[in-house]
Design brief:
Number of helices: 4
CATH topology: YaeB-like fold
Order of helices and strands: EHHHEEEEH
Distance between the termini: 31 Å
Number of strands: 5
Strand order of the largest sheet: 1-5-4-3-2
CATH class: Alpha Beta
Largest sheet: 5 strands, mixed
Structural class: alpha+beta
Radius of gyration: 13 Å
CATH architecture: 2-Layer Sandwich
Strand content: 25-35%
Oligomer: single chain
CATH superfamily: RelE-like
Number of domains: 1
Shape: globular
Helix content: 40-55%
């Protein structure tokens, strides 16, 4: 399976990097390494996660982040990488899900 990270998810990763790097130098790089490792695991485990707000959700192993993705024929499309501490209504709106 091919993994495609959409621009919106890249923006989420960049924002996470900036936040953690501002907390401690080098932590932003560790954040990215960890999240990309989690994303790479989708080559084997895509589709095995629970659906939340209509999308598959992979929880990161080390950071309070969730990777939201869809499966489209042979591709895994990463739509968002969001902080789980956010208000669920905000996450729902961010994923363009209607109530």
């Amino acid at each position: 399976m091919n993994i495609k990270i959409l621009p919106s998810a890249l923006d989420d990763l960049s924002a996470g990097y900036e936040f953690y790097e501002s907390q401690l130098e080098g932590l932003g790089s560790f954040f990215l390494d960890t999240l990309f490792f989690d994303i790479d695991s989708l080559k084997l485990y895509a589709g095995m996660h629970n659906k939340v707000f209509g999308q598959y959700r992979l929880l990161s192993k080390r950071f309070p982040y969730a990777i939201y993705y869809l499966i489209d024929s042979k591709d895994v499309l990463i739509n968002a990488v969001l902080d789980c501490r956010r208000n669920p209504n905000w996450i729902k709106k961010r994923l363009d899900i209607e109530s």
